[in-house]
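Workshop exercise sheet. Pairs work together: one partner reads the sequence aloud, the other fills in the structure field after running the prediction. Swap roles for the next sheet.
Pair: D.N. / O.F.
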Amino acid sequence: MAPIIDLRGVSTVYEGERRPAIKDINLIVEEGEFIYIVGPNAAGKTTLLETINGLLPISKGSALVFNLDVRKYGREIRREIGYVPQDFMVEPNEPYTALDVVLMGRYGKIGVINKPGKKDRMKAVEAMRLLGVEELANKPIGKLSGGQQQKVMIARALAKEPKILLMDEPFSNLDSGSRDRVLMLVNRLNEEQKVTIIIVTHDLSQVMGQNHRIIVMNEGRIIADGDFNSIFDVAEKILPINMWRKH
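Structure field:
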């Protein structure tokens, strides 16, 4: 079987920029893998997720996801990918309820011209229950705390029933109990449903001692790829040592 993600010599340049944000990336991901991506600011971690998700034009190399060319089939690929972005702006007076936002994940599955049905609503409510935010369903998203909004965005991605789940700093607004809940949930999705998980994180406590694959990025390149022990020497040279020691 072909890998679920196959990037070969991929470079991506943001509009208006000359220098590529990621450079000559080679990455093979098999179905059902669980991967953490770590690295300093501006290392290219978010760009890599956006490239996999077909959100950025590829200036060099080839990129296949689900064995489909990302350049040609970005929309089809995104139907099977749940994406939790790092930066999401919610205005305080945003009229959508938390349930409305989670249901938006179903539009990615059924298409924007189709109206969500009973099954879609059930999937959205179930995702909210898994995140512990079902009681917020009818509250305006703009009135929720940062942590509550984060969990709603994760629920939106899960409601899509993705084959690949991309999460960009999903723990940034969560307390330790909520982080543990999210981690337990995504681990279960990975183990029981073979969902491929890729998480970008600065929370190094989540990667220490893990058996999962860890990718280290710096200056737009992958500079280490392996288990925790094999990447540690490289990672501690580019990440503040106190971030490793305090955990």
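Discussion prompt: The mean pLDDT is 90. What would you look at next?
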